[in-house]
Amino acid sequence: MAQRKLKIRDLTLRDGQQSLFATRLSQAEIDKLLPFYENAGFYIMEVWGGAVPDSVMRYLDESPWDRLRIISKAMKGKSLLSALSRGRNLFGYVPYPDYVLEGFYKEAIANGLNVMRIFDALNDIDNVRESIRLINELGGIADGAVCYTVDPKTEPAEKPGFFGRLFGKKAQEPEKIFTDEYFVEKAREMERLGAKIITLKDMAGLVNPLRAASIISKLKAALKVPVDFHTHCTPGYGLASSLMAIINGVDILDTNIWWFGGGSAAPAIELIYVFAQKLGIELEANMEAVGEIRKHLLGARQSLKAFDLNHDKMPREFDPLKDKLPADIDALFDRAIAAAKALDEDTLLAACHAIEEYFGFPKPNEIVKDAEVPGGMYSNMVAQLKALGSEDLLEDAMKLIPMVRRDAGLVPLVTPTSQIVGSQAVSVALDRKKGNPDYSNPSNQFISLVKGEYGHTPVPVDPAFREKITGSPVEKPYDVSSYKKPANPTLPEYGDAPLASNREEELLMELLPNVANTFLRKRRAEEYNARKAEEAPVAAAAAEESKAAEEPITGPTLKAPMGGRIISVSVAPGDKVKKGQVLLVYEAMKMENDVTAESEQTVKRVFVRPDDVVGTDAVLIEFE
Fold it and tell me: Rg (Cα) of the chain, in Å, rounded?
């Protein structure tokens, strides 16, 4: 009988660095790793998508297209390259029309992308249907990802959500929505649409070992295409659940290389290799090449110290090809395997936690585990409350998540719904602190979610709640025909050059308009200055402040409720505004918020422009 093989999708250059180091790995550091990656033998390398396109422009001032091209050229086709996208939303929060999807996928595949992992935050099949078709048609491999989530534990004792009130006593014992059969049927639908790989995507690391066994085994029985398992170690299940997935026949496993594994990331391939050896399974990777990458990754991690929450407690070095494990640690691997085969979850978890503790990986995050939310969602809520000076409300906000989630249709918590629900839970906690009704300040994204613009939620939104939030009880899907392609202005200050100079840059403007605007202006400035090298650099127009801005403020003002980025400004000096009129839109914690007039007033001065970054209580507008 032929030896069973396990394929590996390496996440180090995308999800690994995103989970652990805020997606700050520079191209220069990646370039040092690529010669070793070429011969590592990974089935798939995830190198793009997720937060990479945004972050490399926003923080590193690098081109995401260049990153994909450089990696593709270095790999010479020896590993498939994959990216992560949000179906119809791609990398943003707006559902795009089909022509935008087609243009993006066409450019991505032309620049070296092979596999597009496609997921939808609501597990709405309609939102991935066209992406699967286009990827296959354009010569790529469509990887359909089913987002794992759990039913809320209990309904909050006070102020139950609309879903709870609608179904009365059932709210105390929620109906089981997210069963094994729910995930299997979603997978079947994706396979029928043409997905060539199916991934169980456990973005929050909430798949416990017994659930991994049951879902993976059922997926294997129901599907003809390979099954991939993607999880994180944040709540402490990752390593044990990965072992359980292997034992239950998973075809592809997502891992990271040592210094970029564990904690809030996926398990380290080195630990998976030890398990595979003991199980008699061939792990399809060149572990000698992995060892060379591991050596260079240590330096890469040290360069990211400013973003590394565990920089003072690094894992101990380990080479599974050379280092002999102490007898008691080796026995832990055997104990974990025996427990997994016996479906003894407690013993399995205890053994895996002891293995991780020995090697120095972070302990399970009990707060995230108990709250059953993604680690990124939790950290965003902490940051939001810190910016508002209301850290004392964190516990209250966490307790409100089940209510907000139910009211919004029991949505899975994955980007972007995790940010939308988390931000709204913070807002409701603030409402209650101030004595205001719940949902007094819904974000634009929460309104869109409840309205139906993100797609069909797992449980229908109560029409009464939808009317309260949106003004209408009727579900209204996003009208893609209303989508307006961002303008591509000419820049007089740079010799009338267009902001976006080619199709790649136009796509960046469509997918990430605010970040791309700043990034592309820098590129046009560099090009202009290169042409005008004999002249003094052109002064940035944004640095010129009007004399009026230097005058003292004497009238009533509008201040920023919290730090963020200005998206748009709707008024100008001299405008007479009515109560409730939108004055500007700003982005904070990835949520867009309308700022409205509190009374009839006349605008005297506007102190901000689109793309300006402001702090909490910064003066935005002065009135007469």
Answer: 25
| Residues 603 and 553 sit within 8 Å (Cβ to Cβ) | no
Per the CB < 8 A criterion, the answer to whether 241 and 248 are in contact is no
Which residues contact residue 168 at a Cβ distance below 8 angstroms, ignoring those fewer than 6 apart?
A: none
CA neighbours closer than 13 Å in the CB half-sphere of residue 189 = 16
- The token pair at 408 is 């919004």
Burial 362-374 (b: 16+ CB within 10 A, else e): bebbebbbebbbb
Tokens of 418: 């995790």
Amino acid at position 247, single letter: I
DSSP-based three-state secondary structure for 379: helix
623 phi, psi to nearest 5 deg = -110, 160
Contacts of 377 (CB under 8 A, 6+ apart): 204, 413, 418, 419, 421, 422
Whole-number percent of the chain with pLDDT over 90: 66
Which of 32, 115, 19, 22 has the alpha carbon at shortest distance from 70?
Answer: 32
| Whether the predicted pLDDT of 167 surpasses 50 | no
Return the number of other C-beta atoms located less than 10 Å from residue 316's C-beta: 10
How does pLDDT run across 386-445, given as a tens digit for each residue?
Answer: 888 888 898 888 889 889 999 999 999 887 888 899 899 999 999 999 999 999 999 999
Distances (CA, A) of 88 to 25, 92, 593, 621: 27, 9, 23, 36
Nearest by Cα to 99 from 514, 454, 483: 483
pLDDT digits (tens, 9 = 90+) for 535-594: 544 444 444 444 444 578 888 898 887 777 788 888 889 999 898 888 988 777 556 778
Q: What sign does the dihedral 409-410-414-420 (CA atoms) show?
A: positive
3-class DSSP state for residue 505?
helix
Chain segment 28-72, per-residue pLDDT in tens? 999 999 999 999 999 999 999 988 999 999 999 999 999 999 999
Q: Rounded mean pLDDT of the chain?
A: 89
Distance separating alpha carbons of residues 383 and 218, to the nearest angstrom? 39
Residue with tokens 């043409």: 194
State the sign of the Cα–Cα–Cα–Cα dihedral 247, 250, 256, 262.
Answer: negative
Q: What CA–CA distance (Å, rounded) separates 309 from 301?
A: 11
Helix, coil or strand: residue 517: helix
Longest dimension (CA), the chain: 85
For residues 233 and 244, give the distance between their C-alpha atoms in angstroms, rounded to a whole number: 14
Report the percentage of the chain scoring pLDDT > 70: 92
Q: What would the pLDDT profile of 239-251 be if each residue is shown by its tens digit?
A: 999 999 999 999 9
Q: Give first-to-last CA distance, the chain, whole Å.
A: 85
Closest CA to 205 of 253, 238, 244: 238
Type of residue found at 26: S
